[in-house]
Queue: 2 jobs
Job 1
Amino acid sequence: MSKHGKKYQKAAESVVKGQVIPLGTALQDVKKLAYAKFDESVDVHVNLSIDASKGEQSVRGSLVLPYARAAAPRVIVFAKGDYATAAEKAGADFVGADDLVDKVAAGWMDFDYAVATPDVMGMVGKLAKQLGPRGLLPNKKLGTVTFDVASIVADLKKGRVFFKNDKSGIVHFSFGKVSFDAKKLQENLAAFVKALVAAKPAASKGKYLKKMTIASTMGVGLQVNPEDALQS
């Protein structure tokens, strides 16, 4: 029995499984084949030449897309004194220290990103069980643990987004909406792929970008050549 509905099956009829499609055509097809009543995200799934079980081969990074995927995110900052003032001036939605830790510990989660200065990470660490599973715990590698709170808050408000590989060595990333025109989607995808290449671990062997598939949230996957995105 098929796991997909009739609308998906109808869209899939026009796709040749395993065929590599020119990027420009694929982006147009993703828009045409989207059938949901909401504005679906357009996602890319990249199989990487890494051993995901080895920490030194993990891939993670961030970038500011040329065209933001959504409205400005809600950003909170754990900081004190001048750093708290700088975060407020940069546009943070909520700034605090012990009071903010208590607020989150009590169950408040109305935010998209959390930033912290290094000197308060001791108290923020108490929230690991709440924030960790949601990917919201401030992380030095991602730049969200820093004394330069003004810069990271400004970046996050402009649309900085993060990516990392899963246990299978695949990176899943949303680079736009079906409502975006193909040019905006292509520029966003190019920016992501370039950031992904820049994040290549030294221990990775062979062809780094092995396979790339794009699809809308509910739609059919279309295989494209990663090199097409790099040349955009």
Note: The chain has two domains: 6-68+161-230, 75-158.
Job 2
Amino acid sequence: MLKAQHHRWIGLLLWGLITALGSVALARLELAQQREAFETDARIVHRLLSQRVVQHDAVMATLALLQTARDLSLPEQRLGSLYPQILSVQRREAGAEWPDERLRVAETLSRALRRPALAAVDFARGRYLLVLAAEPASFALQMDLRAVVPWSEWPMAPETSPVRVLLQYEGQDWVVQPGRLGEGGWRFDFHKHLAAESQPFDVVAQRQVGWRELPWSWMLAWAALVAAALAGGLALLRQRAARRRAEELLRLGQVARLNTLGELAAGMAHELNQPLTAVLANTQACARLLDEDPPDMPVIRSAMGQAVEQARRASAVVGRLRRAVERPDLAAQLQPADLQQAVQNALYLLEPEFSRREVVPRLELPAARVVALAEPVALEQIIHNLLMNALQALEQVPVKERQLTVTVQAEAGQGRITVTDSGPGMMDEVLARVFEPFFTTRETGLGLGLSLCETLASGMGGSLQAAQHAPRGAAFRLLLPLAPDTGESQP
């Protein structure tokens, strides 16, 4: 039962760990894909806007090259029909003055840089002025930022896209695309200058990926898959454990049956040996009486002689049977045995029996290991029998009152295993005969289990004791000598 709970906890921990690792991997993959898509769109936005502002430089350069000194038709005024982003075109003839001081300063800068220059930027209204110094006339273009954006080629849906796109210049922001930015999650950022030096605007793109956008369906599917795989693995482990438990119980059962047969054969030999001896004595006496009788009765003497011979032969057969079924000397097979481990092994083997009877065993172990001298199979058989007896006693009380405690201790040079239960207990007359062979209070019992356990304990140099357990129940104590050079316990 303890090992099964241990396996369940390990399974839950493994499930949590593998699920967490897989979910993190899926989330990272999703975030990587989101970032890649964001950066791709941001680069497209930067390229499209850069193409437009470079186009503005080309338009102004073309105006400067195609103008004539006496051209009064002002063809530049028709630029708005070709380029919707050009709201108006101003022209300063030679010798004239700009109506706005900012245009004059921008023309001076343009003449020095030999390229268009910004005269004014008003991102609040979505406007900016671009000036080109030329001869004989200079030009100023008023640009509409909204129309500068090539929406037909735009890589995102401006109304629904979560990406926010801005143009920035000296602390001013113009929102190209509002996007959706919230709190928490992961923030992606893109920042790059436009390709035209005359319009040194910065393209800024931002993307907020919230927790809701993580691949939760895939994570749940992964968690279910891991749970199914671990459940299958645990089922296989339980199947293997059940098979090993059955094999161990079969081995203990075979040993118990052999020992029981030994007890039975030894008892039968003891019971049959006395009448056989009496038959032998009577037959010999009869033969002597017949020898003293004057009548010659050779046939009777021959029959009596055969009876004596058959009686001796029967006695020899019984003797051989007893020698054959007697248990080997356990003292010659003693070795250090960990009492805690032996108890835990027995509880593990009997786990289905505990579950069937709805009994949760309580195990009280010392901090240090207790190592005693014992024969391993005999030790396991004793603990197994004591636990089974306790479970059978607990069947006679309500489920809520069923308690079973196993205590391991070391004191006075001995290791002690105590099995107590809250069953109906034993009367004094039953307690006095509990280790007597063939004595039992159960209808289907043989009365050899506890007798065998006491014999096995004695053969290992220990003892088995029975007592009442207050307020109700029974207590069985197995005492075994501690292994040498261990003190009373071993860390």
Note: The chain has three domains: 7-213, 238-326, 332-481.
